[in-house]
Amino acid sequence: MTFLVSNPTMKLVERKIFIYEISTLPFGKRKNSILPSADKVSLKLPNNIRKSPFDIGSWVYTERVAKTLNTKSSDYGVILVNPSTLREERQVAIKNLLESLYIDIQLKKTAYRSINSYLTEMRFFIDWCDQNNHQDLFLNTKKARLALLTFIEFLRERLKVSKQYGKTTHDYQQRAIKMVSQGLDINEPELMAGIRQIFPKTADKPDISLRPEAEFKTVLCLSDKLFHGLCDFLIEEKHYPFLLDLPKESVWVFPLYRRPFFSKEKLKDKNENIGLPINFEEGQLKNLNEIISTFNSKLHGKKSRASLILDKAKSKLQEANSNKWNSERVYLANWCIESFIVLFLSRTGMNEAQLVTQQWDKNHIIGDNVQGFKNIKPRAGGKFVEFKIQSRFINQFRKFIKFRAFLLEDNDIPNLFFTVKGKNQFIPFENKVLDIFYGRLHAKIDSTIPVIKTKEWRDFKVDNVLKENGPIVTASTVQNTTETLIKYYVKGRSYDQQEQFTAYFHKLNNEVIFEDKHQWRKSAVGHCKTNGENPTSNLTNMSVNPDCNQPEGCLFCIHYAVHADEEDIRKLCSIRYVISHTINLSANIEHNLTVFKAVLQRIEDILQALSARSSKYNQLVENISNDVEKRENLSQYWAQKLYIFKRLEVLV
């Protein structure tokens, strides 16, 4: 997309720029270097991806144009700008974006080819903003949200007339969200709260039945035993040999790099025992005659060879017990980390790419316990990132952080997980970490242990949270809509899970939504069937309790009802609008995001159920939603609420 200058009478000039490769930007360890103002920065990508520099600094100006479109010209890639249109808030935003790109490259999180695509899609968004009176999108969160809302509606209209494919439209939307999120240094859920997004229409995934629960429990139980046993041994600097408890047996561990211990199954293989100076059944070194008995009867010099083996074993045992960085202890440390990773995946549902790039430092925050979950927020690259784990897992997580600190000593590494090479030697994990872990299990414990991949761990987490907490909490926890959960996770699952969603939407359609009018008491979000008496929850394990004094509490009460008409639909769109514009005003934003995410999800589910009834209702919901979002035509109650906020000058 070529940017057209809005005022062609203004003078366009070529400015001085500094060309950087992303990896050489002055961030991280290069902070002593000075980054010129963001408007002067251009990025050099590998020649096989992009021949001319990407002039990201030109985005600081709202009027700019390519000097030439001739790809063979030496001026190709040069951007002319109108100096009077420089916006200072964009200097900060582009600098934040540059730092995020730098971190992605340092952590090998994003390939250069992908970065080129991302920048191209971001340029499409910033060009659109400057052509459609949203030049102030980086001024504050409200301006940014308005720009995103309008841009997404623009994309939705293009999609309707088939000017773009669904996936392309979704990519442009996601890049715009990422650009604003990074530019303003605000997390995406907070930025996008209440804004209806576009989701790609992909083919349904095939039915995949979840593994038997016993297989997950087998791997989890073994991983748990390995993590705690190895962690305690290493942190407390215990001596070899030590007894390690496994689910089916206890094994003696010795400082043998390739064979720290043998399960009973592996001890049956006599070839594994030839020349070994260790009695793994009794947890002690063999005597000379026991070692000799393992040799081939025709072997010459058995006694001297056995004596040499025994002496080396004693020496190795002494060295391993006097040096915490002994290679055998380092080997166990890596196995301990890998064991915890399996536990971590089962609780977070992360994919392997997220896992190996997850950052951490000492300045982390463990959020309040909300509905059985805790938010973990490490500060990474000067910014808070976040993941959520169940509260009952928090002690294990803290134990791992203690173990991590024990290994690092005074060293600092940004990755949560890493491989230990020795004292002061740590490298970030690369992909295939699970393959390494399962390889160890098969070689040293049991070759029949099931290999469970990250996608299966995510499905396992969804199923378990769903059983315990119901559809809305599950959707919130794994950051999906209930519609996505049904489409991609519940399909092909157990009868119980399908029944939960069937029952949930059955209640929406038969006990909440009514096409016929009833003489019920009106409320700010719909109607109450019992005139505000005896509020009772209609969902289990919710962070929002039914409360007649709080409008959002009505949404979760068995007495709540919605008429399928313009009035009640506008009420729902209005509360969504007000929540999304005021959610970041509280001193406890963390808590509000958690609570109101469930409210927004409930509203979305009701509106989706209404839309699905017929094309007439679908159009009605869409028209009212646009009227509320674009023109602030709210229902009377919520319009008054919004007016109060504006009078108090907490909204602009």
CATH class of the largest domain: Mainly Alpha
| Rg, alpha carbons | 30 Å
Q: State the total count of DSSP E strands.
A: 19
Q: Note the total helix count.
A: 21
Mean pLDDT comes to 79
Give the strand line-up of the largest sheet: 16-19-18-17
In what range is the share of β-strand residues?
Answer: 5-15%
- Given helix and strand content, the structural type is alpha+beta
Principal-axis shape: flat
CATH-derived architecture of the largest domain: Orthogonal Bundle
Which structural traits does this protein have?
alpha+beta, hpI Integrase, Chain A, 4-stranded mixed sheet, 48% helix, flat
Task: Describe the SSE topology.
Elements: E1 18-21, E2 41-44, E3 64-66, E4 79-81, H1 88-106, H2 112-131, H3 141-160, H4 166-184, H5 188-192, H6 213-235, E5 242-245, E6 250-253, H7 264-267, E7 278-279, E8 284-285, H8 288-292, H9 302-322, H10 327-348, H11 352-357, E9 365-366, E10 373-377, E11 379-380, E12 383-384, E13 387-390, H12 394-408, E14 418-422, E15 425-428, H13 433-444, H14 454-477, H15 482-490, H16 495-512, E16 513-514, E17 521-523, E18 526-528, H17 551-554, E19 560-563, H18 566-582, H19 589-611, H20 615-631, H21 636-647
Parallel strand pairs: 1-2, 16-19
Antiparallel strand pairs: 3-4, 5-6, 7-8, 9-10, 10-13, 11-12, 14-15, 17-18, 18-19
Helix pairs in contact: 1-4, 2-4, 3-4, 6-10, 10-13, 10-14, 14-15, 14-16, 14-19, 16-19, 18-19, 18-20, 18-21, 19-20
Brief overview:
This protein is an alpha+beta fold and 652 residues long. The protein is 48% helix and 10% strand. α1 (88-106) crosses α4.
